[in-house]
Write a structure and sequence with these properties.
By secondary structure, this protein is mainly α. The protein has one domain (2-241). It contains eleven helices and two strands; from the N terminus they run βααααβααααααα. The chain has a two-stranded antiparallel ribbon with strand order 1-2. Helix 2 packs antiparallel against helix 4 and helix 9 crosses helix 10. The longest helix is centred in the middle third of the chain and has 36 residues, at 109-144. 36% of the residues are buried.
């Protein structure tokens, strides 16, 4: 699943009626970043499963960077668009089609389950961190070659979204609600009988998440506080290298 919410720094352009940029323009920039982040997350699950002995994702053609096999019409297209527009550009919620895995194929069930479950969030954390030096490099290139400044500003905007989107994906997927990734780790801290009943919550997992997103925003804001803090730190770090433009200021 995917949840991405921008803090005030990235939110500001959308909240000013005098800005030349509208929500649709920003969604065009957010969409490919969301899609890439989703695909990377699911690819990581499939690749980790393969390394742990499960060839299911590979056999079904899901171990690919081609986004088409990972797209679910509702989760990947309709839901992000509806939540982005409905929240006035402050939130995008959706997901890619989950990569199929068969845990009983893992050489070591517990270790494989944990590794595969955390592979996606680990990948998104790496992407978020990689966006920081990329923003700096693009800024240096754009400052040296002014003809590339406009393109560079667009790329920097997408990379800034890449930071908060991927950090948010890490936080969201670590929420210990089945079937999110965090639940696959949290269950091992429970007694076996409790863990079994806990995993059964997965049947109502999506409903629980929708209720949480609708009525539990204060709790979510607390859970996502580290995301907003880290995004603010990253934004301040790259600010001297940001190319001035309507997209980035």
């Amino acid at each position: 699943m995917k949840f991405a919410e921008r803090n005030a720094n990235l939110n500001a352009p959308l909240n000013n009626d005098t800005d030349t940029l509208d929500q649709f323009q920003y969604f065009i920039l957010v969409a490919p970043v969301l899609l890439f982040s989703m695909v990377a997350h699911e690819y990581a699950h499939g690749y980790a499963a393969l390394k742990q002995g499960d060839t299911t994702a590979y056999a079904l053609g899901r171990l690919t960077w081609n986004p088409l096999p990972h797209i679910d019409p509702f989760l990947t297209i309709i839901m992000p668009l509806l939540t982005f527009v409905g929240s006035h550009g402050t939130m995008a919620f959706g997901g890619a089609k989950p990569v199929p895995v068969v845990p009983r194929n893992y050489r070591n069930f517990k270790r494989g389950d944990i590794i595969v479950s955390l592979a996606g969030v680990a990948t998104n954390l790496v992407i978020a961190l990689a966006c920081i030096p990329l923003i700096i490099i693009v800024g240096l290139v754009g400052s040296s070659f002014r003809q590339l400044a406009t393109t560079g500003a667009l790329v920097q905007t997408m990379l800034r979204f890449g930071i908060v989107i991927n950090l948010s994906l890490v936080a969201f997927n670590l929420i210990p609600i089945p079937p999110l990734d965090g639940s696959h780790v949290f269950k091992y801290f429970l007694p076996p009988a409790w863990a079994l009943n806990y995993q059964r919550l997965g049947a109502q997992g999506l409903l629980i998440l929708i209720v949480l997103l609708t009525f539990g925003r204060p709790l979510l804001n607390l859970w996502f506080a580290p995301v907003f803090f880290l995004d603010t730190v990253a934004t301040r770090a790259v600010f001297p290298y940001i190319i001035p433009s309507p997209w980035t200021m």
